[in-house]
Sequence to fold (295 residues):
Amino acid sequence: MRCNKIEFIELSKEILDKGCSLRFQANGSSMYPAIRDGDIINIEPVNEKEIKLGDVIFYRTNDIRMAAHRVINKFFQNGKSILVTEGDFNTGKEEVILRDVLGKVKAIERNGRIINLTYGVGRLMDLSYAKISPFIRRPRLLGARLVRYIQGFRIYRSLVKKMIKANIVYKFESYNGEEDCLLANRNGKIIGKTTIINFLKDGSLYKGWWIFGMWVNWRYRGLGIGKQLTRMACDFVAESGASEVKLLVFKDNKPALNLYQEIGFREISIPQIDKELKKEAKRSRRLRIIMARGI
Fold:
């Protein structure tokens, strides 16, 4: 069964709140190699008090999506349990989680084989990743900067574009007229995606059309895929009759800021949302800002 982002969040919460397990296909590479794109993930309900260092928890992120990332730290502050998570393959900052933890990954199914993460080799692997994470973070960040540096060369982008551009296919997947997912595919594999949501329900802080969850596989960054996805999303919103589209972006994400500014987005203020973003920044230590573009 396929469902949109909001439906997936609601369905996941309903299933796990009832004490049932959840099973779905992983999408993305943030937990590679522990969890790979296309693996089947089995989630079980969990009490936050039972969460241990190394567990891979299933939770709602700050940008309104679900993620399964590893717990690399756990501590108490003002009587509340604070979890710090990070994707094994992420090159960004860790994320601080205060709520919206729905479950934890019990097992992974890959090529007909089941890898249980609650005991044995699977549990040992989880603990190992959590223990070595602080030591490999700096080399990993340096490696990511080196890759971005190389990808910044015009000759590199020109060469790679010639090799793969013709093989990239863009397509829409629509859900109930409220949410649309724009995908970039190469050889049948998703290498980039973004989501367009039209907030129609009353009571939401968000109004109108928004772009969420821009993602491009690190191997294909610097090739204009993110720019093409954003432009196509803007065109889609324009064809829907709207006069403006908005998005959220981390203020310290310079490449993304430059991309959006080049396309015509400018920083704006929506007091109610700004207030929530500042609260979020106190927890996560990263501030997101609102940007908008007239259509």
Summary: The mean pLDDT is 82. Residues 5-150 form a domain with the Umud Fragment, subunit A fold (CATH 2.10.109.10).
